[in-house]
Amino acid sequence: MLAQLTACLLAPHLPISEKELASAIEIPPRPELGDAAFPCFTLAKTMRQSPQSIAERTADAVNGTDEGVRAETAGGYLNLFFDPAVWGNRILTRVMAGDYGRLQDGQGRRVVIDMSSPNIAKPFGIGHLRSTMIGNALANVYQAAGYRVTRVNHLGDWGTQFGKLIAAYRRWGDRALLEAEPIRESLRLYVKFHEEAESNPELEDEAREWFRKLETGDGETRGLWRFFVDESLKEFDRVYARLGVRFDLVLGESFYNDKMEAVVDRLTELSLLEESDGAQVVRLEELGMPPCLILKSDGTTIYPIRDLATAVYRKKQLGADLLLYVVGAEQTLHFQQVFAVLGKMGEAWHADCRHVPFGLMKFEGKKMSTRRGKVVFLDEVLDEAAAKALQVIEAKNPELENKRETAEAIGVGAIVFADLRNRRQLSVDFQLEEAIGFEGETGPYLQYTYARILSLLRKGKYEEFAARGKAAEGRHMSSPAAWACLKTASRFEESILQAVRENEPSVIGRYLLELAKDFNRYYNEGKMLTEDGEETFGKLSVAAACAKVLKQGLQLLGIRTPERI
Ligand code: ARG
Hints:
This protein has about 575 residues and is α/β, with parallel strands linked by helices. The chain has 24 helices and 14 strands. The strands form four sheets. Strands 6-5-4-10-11 form a five-stranded parallel β-sheet, with helices on both faces.
């Protein structure tokens, strides 16, 4: 926002458009260098003057106005210092406006986000958890930037594992158990299958036969398959609800069963398929990649072709302008190959497909998937976090109403933020004790800062003052710490756009940490609730702006903001 305001201010004095100005303006990292700076170098040629003299002349012009801005020069740089007493209120008005943080940049563009996408009958791995949270945050951020967003759960609901599962269920299954605990029971069957298959190889044949039946549409087998899928989904849905994640579409891999043939036909028509060891592949040497396997030697389809059909569907039926795949880094080559094959198929939009990879997540130093015998039950991790949060609340504020609900919000928030605070490609070593703390770079720290501001606003009767419809006096929000808060609050929209450009939710996470730190510095600076009503109102207005942005930002990350903690 500051860049925008500065551009508006400078435009009358320089021969370039406001828009160009806005993109050239820099926000110096240290306040001593100004609140905003404009490098005059690129204008030297058109204006036939040295950058210094452009900077100096413009500084004089700005200093001659009474806009509440002081201009200085440093070489070819024009450095601007805003008078907080004048500009504080302008920023505040914008931040408090209903449409702040709701941009139009993506207008008319649809982004389809592939997220979560766990495999039925296999454990919901931690990779799927990261995909769920990163995908959800990205979906929110894109929405805030004005895009239309379709969140798709590309459920792994097809494949040979179903043959194994059905075979195992037929031998050792128990319907009641499966209904009660579908994931655990599926897993038990799956594990038992593999154990037994070691001494009894016939089982593999049995499984193949079941999968064949499934593929040919045998009624009873299909019924069993549906049952497995539906029961697992119910359990996933419980976790999704706790995480506050929803999908626009749940289209599993099976949805594409009848859509792959068209892709094979197209590849054939374009003579792109080549035989290799009995299998059909698309060669990608010229792109420096190994061949993409399309059909196995027995003619069965595999993962890549499903993704080709999926991408085509998303483009053509869902109207995607941008296709994001939030999937672990270990699938990088797979997506490079799929996108490359799309390119070879003449689908120019393959350039709008992006794999959004992320690193591994460990739980207290251990790979999450190895805990408790190969699996982490997400529910349990969330329960553990919520229980810890409840302990903290019991110690800090035993009188609190809705303790359980608040603890749930904090526990889940802690996990989500631990995932989103660092750049997604880095691996995460999740430490519950640390993540749940109210200090440090944690979700609860942000949630607590928010709740603390709300309590302050209640005590200071901020709403009553605000209801008068009169702006706070600038002089009461002009301390350096207050100004730092307002300046940071003014960068929210830029952060949203940066998060979109980089497909990086951590941009919002880091930004919110900065804002919370600014606020806490401001809070510790001195008494906010004073005898003087106008002074209190001025000071609280700055706090209210921080609260508003904190709340909106946390919502973008998918983290709830309890009003009292
Ligand atoms: N189910 C897959 C897995 O767990 C992830 C699917 C990702 N999405 C996709 N379109 N391939 O590995």
